[in-house]
Amino acid sequence: MAREIGMLMAPPTMPDAAAWSRIARTRASGFTLVFALLLLWEFSARFGWVVSQNWPPFSLVLVATARGLWSGDLSGPLAASLARMAAGYVIGSVFGIALGLLIGTIGVLDRFITPLIEALRPLPLPALVPPLILFLGLDDRLKVFVVAFAVVFPVLVSTLGGVRDIDEVLIRTARTFGASRARTLAKVVLPASMPSISAGLRISLSLALVTTVVAEMIAGSSGIGYSILQAQYGLRPEEMYAAVLCISVVGYGLNRGFIRLERRLLDWYQKDDAT
Fold first, then answer.
1. Model pLDDT for residues 37-85, shown as the tens digit of each residue
2. Cα 31 to chain center, whole Å?
3. Nearest residue to 220 (alpha-carbon basis) of 254, 249, 251, 243
4. Residue 90 placed within a domain
5. What is the Cα–Cα distance from 139 to 261, expressed in whole angstroms?
6. What's the pTM value of the predicted model, to 2 decimals?
7. Is 43 within a domain?
8. How many Å separate Cα 221 from the centre of its chain?
């Protein structure tokens, strides 16, 4: 009993270096940094560290976010942007994977198409929007095409890299057993390239969101990007930052969801990599 009382009365001990190391490796450390930065934002506006009418306290941004989501002023444009993003992401991903598989397995296509790809890949997307308006107009076709154009190249390059890294023995074995080119492509090349394809898809996911917002800012009449510009022109900083906050949260959620899906679908690859 005396020992237990002594343990209760003893001053708390500070975590040792190993404990701090374990804490730093957890996701809580990252959220702690985000929370500290948001507190700095709040205090810098409340106490006048940043003197500007366009720098509202973060608490007012949260109020504007809740009000916009409840009234539909934010949720509606955000849903429209996500729909355009999803359409462009799917089109660009499917085209990039298919083209990467074909180029990686057919030498003639590799020599014929690769120079064109390398010429188109460095083109900045904002510079493409004005000429595309002449052909596609200002409706959703323009935004979907721009998103698909931005997505296709990271997926294509990742797919092509995955195909080129496949052990040639696997392909020769499939052909030895009489598998056709199409069957070899579907049963051997595609599964073996999935880790690289997944990396390209993950990179393109955030790129698709950014491209959608930029396209709506340049040539949009709706969507979250258009809402940001309208709030800026109307001198409503709380609503502008609220829209930016929604984009940030959605982008984080999409990335975490993709990681979970990737772990489920590529569980075999992660186990092999761990061993």
1. 889 988 888 888 887 888 899 999 999 999 999 988 899 999 999 999 9
2. 19
3. 243
4. yes
5. 32
6. 0.82
7. no
8. 24
